[in-house]
Amino acid sequence: MRQKTLSMRASLILLTCGLLATSVGPAGAESVLEKISRTGKFTVGTRTASIPFAFRNEQGDWVGFSIDLIKELHRRLGRNLVKKITLDLKAVTPMTRIPMVVNRAIDIECGSTTYTRSRDEKVDFSINFFFTGAQILVKKGGAIKGARDLISKRIGVVEGTTTERILRAKLPQAKLVLFPDHDSGFQALQEGKVDGYSTDGILLAGLALKSPDPDNFGISGFFSREPYACILPQNDSRWRDFVNHTFMDAILREMVRRKWGRSLPDAPSGQGLYHAPGDAPIGQVAGTLLTFQPFSVRVGSSKGSAKLS
């Protein structure tokens, strides 16, 4: 009887240990904040051509709205952890950004990523920091004048993006041409290899404004609503809270108004880069509607449009 009781106790102990190991395994893993504190390095994934959010300027430096978000996180990490933290920026693409977060190759991805429920099953997200929508960039005098002209036309889009999925669903008769990044897609439009290039309106405006002749392009259509957020590892609430509190406290209240509010000036609804009447503004940040001036107002011109970088 004694041997049977001891055997039952041993079984219960083993079962309890197994349950504890199962329940605390993921939670017991090193958090992002613990990793940053231990290594002294903050590793971030971002984009190279998502103007005006994350892109390289003429000097090869990363700049943009999302880059400023990253720099604010970096500054607060050093202050809160009371030690020097190195910032390590890594280029990501729409195809690599989620796997790199899942595999913990980066601590966060922040560029121009749309929050979706399907993506939320694999990773977590920060609060939304910008709202825009998929549109189409065309050359003036080209084959596309409106939505009806998109049938059988060659539309460029970056592979693996929400824009690709939306265009396949809403424009099944269009001929989609896939590209690895925005630069190559925009280059194809300039060379006449595609009739239009589609991504979020705010990114299309950035591509056009950096070209030698912005007046040669126009933006039309509005196929979706795209809320931008940063990608975070799942099940790390302390890190997610740190990111969200930083954005709410320092970014949406201060930085947008002081800096990027000048690069993305306010304009009445329906004005700006749109040919089709009634189009919505390009985007929204913290309740403020944002849009670019018409193409006739050049970046950095005497008419008041500010430089992007």
Structural write-up:
With 309 residues, the protein is α/β, with parallel strands linked by helices. β16 and β17 form a beta hairpin. The termini are far apart. The longest helix has 27 residues, at 237-263. Mean pLDDT is 76; it is low at 1-27 and 262-309. It has helices spanning 2-24, 32-39, 65-81, 97-102, 117-120, 162-170, 182-190, 201-209, 237-263; strands at residues 41-46, 49-50, 54-56, 62-63, 86-91, 108-109, 124-125, 130-132, 134-139, 154-158, 175-179, 196-200, 217-220, 226-228, 231-232, 283-285, 288-290. The chain is elongated and about 60 Å long.
Concise summary:
The protein has nine helices and 17 strands. It has helices spanning 2-24, 32-39, 65-81, 97-102, 117-120, 162-170, 182-190, 201-209, 237-263; strands at 41-46, 49-50, 54-56, 62-63, 86-91, 108-109, 124-125, 130-132, 134-139, 154-158, 175-179, 196-200, 217-220, 226-228, 231-232, 283-285, 288-290.
